[in-house]
Design brief:
Layout lengths: L1 H9 L5 H21 L6 E2 L3 E3 L3 E3 L1 E2 L9 E5 L5 E2 L5 E3 L4 E10 L5 E11 L4 E2 L3 E5 L13 E2 L5 E5 L4 E6 L5 E6 L18 E2 L5 E5 L6 E5 L5 E5 L24 E2 L3 E5 L7 E5 L5 E5 L10 E7 L4 E6 L2 E6 H4 L5 E3 L3 E3 L11 E2 L4 E9 L2 E8 L5 E7 L10 E3 L5 E5 L7 E6 L6 E7 L8 E2 L5 E4 L4 E5 L6 E6 H6 L14 E2 L5 E2 L5 E7 L7 E6 L26
Parallel strand pairs: 2-9, 23-27
Antiparallel strand pairs: 1-4, 3-7, 5-6, 5-8, 8-9, 10-40, 11-44, 12-13, 13-14, 14-15, 16-17, 17-18, 18-19, 20-21, 21-22, 22-23, 24-25, 25-26, 26-28, 29-30, 30-31, 31-32, 33-34, 34-35, 35-36, 37-38, 38-39, 39-40, 41-43, 42-43, 43-44
Length: about 550
């Protein structure tokens, strides 16, 4: 348009070369204006949400003079002039959301996206609440239940630093052990995120203290302490001959016939070997005066090739288990380290029958890579960039009977959460189940290949093996409200949050802890039952920690 007006005005009045020069000047100015002076509307939001949820809309508009006014149309007849509004949809459907911005110069621009609104989950298919615990838990922050060897007791710790034992048949509390008892010294700080493991003799190993003053306890099946390890420089957690500041993160202690192995995320964190009978440190992993940078976030796990593997704040480390089986309280150098750059690895890991280790690491922003490494050498077999979905959280990876690797994802911004399935051979994505909900725990695989998981909305799902259909679902908080639980009145539908991972008993019972988002001190342990679930998959690693006892060991 500018070209035509200009040529008409200047025709017959200027030589041809002057016209060309002027047109070039106008064209450059026009391009410059498009790049700098014209605003561009843009915004982020979740692609899916539930009826009656408050959906966040965030303007990411740019260009123009930056002094914008906003006109939102949410597609359901409601509008807003806020920059970053929240909106609640009352009905299920697909809505076109429109944002019109106007800058201070009067220039406007429009941007549109669609959002799918789903009905809230009440109950779908065969899935029901079996029992709630007879006592409260505190907030759950990554810790997961463990079953006794005979399946009669279930153990869980929460953020009050108390380990509780419940009858697995009805949820009645059998005993509790307070890991924050002042008689144990300075009280552990921060979350209690470690998951208990159960030895062959019934001993429970559990640690606490994510933010410092961490301690590892050995507790017998009746709730009596056998020993505890702490920051003693001589025979507690290692810190190059000085008093340590142990921090026990998302890991699980591993035991064999003589030793217990536990990772420390604290000052000069490391992997430590303790004598099972005394609780004294007898070996530790370090290269010279240094433990793995960032300490141990997750692990250890043990491969059938005799390697112990941990995830740290600086990659993945492997050490021969045979070298950690010693009594001279000396350092054992790690055999290999994968991923040199500082990238957080705190999703739980899985190991297959070939000694390969599968994990996830953040690579910046919301991007991450799922990886497969050779447990014996640390060589990277494959990596798969996951950049079109949510990110890793406190969840992790498991393995199906055919070797398929499954990982959980937390919804982030307008990127969906859910479950992703990958080929163990090359990391190619088989399918991705997208959800507006965050899956912050590790899924579990049952005998028929179903994928079981809870979400931060408090819903529990059973997904079919092809990743297409939800075959059963339950709003667990709503189920508690309608149950005979003594705590039913403390709950309302959608009032729960799963920051814990499910385990599956041999009889098919599903155990998981749920946080009460209105009052975290009123959280509960629950058992769920479904005729679809007969027991865990017979795969190498069907749930967090490999099995309900969290042995984390492939033999």
């Amino acid at each position: 348009m500018i070209f035509m007006i200009t040529t008409r005005n200047m025709k017959q009045a200027l030589p041809f070369m002057l016209i060309i020069s002027l047109l070039s000047f106008v064209a450059c100015n026009s391009e410059d204006k498009v790049g700098k002076d014209i605003p561009s509307a843009a915004f982020s939001m979740a692609s899916r949400a539930f009826v009656e949820d408050a959906v966040q809309f965030t303007s990411t508009s740019y260009g123009g003079d930056g002094n914008y006014s906003y006109k939102w149309n949410f597609g359901d007849g409601e509008k807003s002039t806020e920059e970053n509004p929240k909106h609640i949809y009352e009905d299920k459907g697909v809505y076109i959301v429109t944002l019109k911005i106007t800058d201070g110069n009067g220039n406007t621009n429009i941007y549109r996206k669609t959002i799918e609104i789903l009905n809230k989950i009440v109950q779908i298919g065969d899935l029901s609440l079996k029992w709630t615990s007879s006592t409260h838990l505190a907030k759950l922050a990554g810790s997961t239940a463990a079953l006794s060897r005979d399946g009669k007791s279930v153990y869980i710790n929460s953020n009050d630093h108390v380990l509780r034992c419940y009858d697995s048949s009805n949820g009645s509390q059998q005993w509790e052990f307070n890991m924050a008892n002042p008689s144990f010294g300075t009280v552990a700080a921060g979350n209690s995120s470690m998951t208990a493991s159960v030895d062959e003799d019934g001993t429970i190993y559990i640690g606490t203290g994510f933010s410092g003053n961490g301690k590892l306890f050995a507790i017998d099946a009746n709730g009596n302490m056998k020993w505890f390890a702490f920051n003693n420089a001589t025979d507690g957690f290692w810190n190059n001959g000085a008093e340590s500041k142990p921090s026990l993160a998302y890991g699980t202690a591993v035991s064999d016939s003589k030793y217990v192995y536990c990772g420390n995320h604290g000052t000069i964190g490391s992997l430590v070997t303790f004598d099972k009978s005394t609780g004294k440190r007898v070996a530790y992993m370090a290269n010279g005066a240094s433990g793995p940078a960032g300490g141990t976030y997750v692990g250890p796990v043990v491969t059938n090739q005799g390697m112990m593997v941990i995830l740290s704040g600086w990659g993945v480390h492997g050490v021969e288990k045979s070298k950690m089986e010693r009594d001279d309280n000396t350092a054992v150098p790690w055999k290999w380290k994968s991923f040199a750059e500082s990238q957080a690895c705190f999703a739980s890991i899985a190991v297959d029958y070939n000694g390969r280790v599968y994990g996830m690491r953040l690579t910046g922003g919301t991007s991450q890579k799922i990886f497969c490494i050779e447990g014996s050498t640390g060589a990277i077999v494959w990596e798969k960039l996951i950049d079109n979905a949510g990110k890793q959280d406190q969840g992790g990876l498991v393995i199906g009977t055919d070797g398929t690797v499954y990982a959980s994802l937390k919804a982030t911004g307008d990127l969906p959460g859910g479950i992703i399935a990958l080929s163990p051979n090359n990391g190619e994505i088989k399918w991705q189940y997208e959800s507006p909900e965050s899956v912050s725990g590790t899924p579990a695989i049952d005998a028929d290949g179903h994928i079981l998981f809870g979400t931060e909305k408090g819903n529990f799902y059973i997904l079919d093996s092809n990743g297409r259909d939800i075959v059963a679902a339950l709003d667990v908080a709503g189920a508690i409200t309608n149950s005979h639980s003594p705590y039913a009145s403390e709950w309302l539908p959608t009032q729960g949050k799963f920051w814990s991972s499910p385990i599956i008993g041999n009889d098919g019972t599903i155990y998981i802890a749920i946080t009460n988002v209105e009052n975290e001190k009123q959280s509960l342990m629950v058992a769920l039952t479904s005729g679809l679930v007969s027991g865990p998959a017979t795969s190498a690693w069907p749930m967090k920690g490999k099995d309900p006892q969290h042995t984390s060991t492939i033999k």
